[in-house]
Task: structure prediction
Amino acid sequence: MIGGGLAGLSSAVALADAGFRVRLLERRPFLGGRAASYDLPGGEHVDNCQHVTLGCCTNLDDFYRRVGAGHKIAFYDRLVFVDSAGRRAVLQASPLPPPFHLAPAFALYPFLSWTERRAIGRALMAIIRGDGINAYADGPGVSMLVWLRRHGQSSASIERFWKVVLVSALNEDLARVDARYGLDVFWKAFLSNRAGFRLGIPRTPLGELYDGCGAAIERRGGEVALRSPVRGLRVSDGRVVAVEMDTGRDETADGYLLAVPHQTALHLLPPPVVEQESQFANLRRLRVSPITGVHFWFDRDVMADPFLAALDTTTQWIFNKSRLYGQPGGRYLQLVISASYELMPLSRQEIIDLCRAELRALLPATREARLEKATVVKEAAATFSPEPGSDRWRPSQCTSLPNLYLAGDWTNTGWPATMEGAVRSGYLAAEAILSASGAPRHLVRPDLPAEGLARWLAARGARRG
Ligand SMILES: Cc1cc2nc3c(=O)[nH]c(=O)nc-3n(C[C@H](O)[C@H](O)[C@H](O)COP(=O)(O)OP(=O)(O)OC[C@H]3O[C@@H](n4cnc5c(N)ncnc54)[C@H](O)[C@@H]3O)c2cc1C
Result:
């Protein structure tokens, strides 16, 4: 297995559980890939970027439990939004059955007019009647922005409601998001099931979530090899015959799983194989989008909430890392900006100054506080971009080479580039390997079931559609 991110780890652990001897080769000195944590030169241990999960991420939840990390995720069912004037809205479930459990919170959303809130209600009903993906009646290739316009959403509702949820969930501007993904986020997280929208946040640095992985792999005689960069795959007679390490040494196995980012997969595969197989060549068409994380350490407590979603500012989410790690107060904050295209050309100091100024409005306690330290992490290629029609370029976990499998958030899972998507891809690849070895097994967990009236309304819509 090449790559110790969530895709490689979930596949390796599931296969080890099924009795396979797995050798996992990871380039870096730690596991977790993009969802990892590491030491800064100053000594602080930081997450590559704040990572959150949702109640609807059933496979990630299954993986965390498998490796004994389930208890390291805290779930929150109260989401607080704040605008630059300091006004707040709370998203919390009412006793109403799904899909109406969040309807009172949406109806009282203070940042929009009644007319705009009614229009949001109508658009949400369109999603419910179409059962998420089936609501996608506009054909492939329509952007979420076009879908919202066609469903009567004003610029203000798009900016102050839809974008707040979707840009961070999908890491892309709505004009570049395939409507299928946007509709699916609302159906799975906010409409179909009461638990779908609960926000899961690690209580520990990300690296500690993978403590159990090595032991799970080693129990079956496998091995995790860190600091083991792979240089390429050797292919002969339509099969992979070896993995060539950076040291020049070869590694051989019965089967090979490539679980690296898609741009890296293109480099590791022999060029003639890429040119011959559209499954690989099409990976060049998948574009990437950036995320920027900003870490601030203040000299005093500046925030009481565990996290906040911000409206009207470049800063989109603020996480109170001190509190999330169970320490009193809120001195260490992490800010997240998804689809952060406009920050890419700015210097780190310019980004720090911009976010610091925004915090003065969003969190008044920061006005008097002294900023002791700040760090900016720009990830230019954070995730693949879920552009309209991008599903066409996402390959299956099985390849035309019979002993080569693929895993990664960019492979075909139906999910956007998320930790859940990465784990699904890992489980799908493991299922394919188990089937090929004559011992098929189901690993992929189903979505949360549609509950209450959501199930009935969706079924009625599907019958009509
Ligand atoms: C800044 C940021 C914020 C994010 N926030 C969230 C979030 O809040 N919620 C969420 O669900 N998702 C989030 N994501 C997305 C999530 O991190 C990814 O979807 C997921 O971690 C991808 O896992 P993966 O295993 O597919 O790929 P990766 O994590 O990229 O793993 C690939 C692994 O392969 C290794 N590798 C590469 N080349 C080689 C080589 N030649 N030899 C050996 N090993 C190699 C890499 O070092 C890496 O460990 C975020 C991503 C970023 C970048």
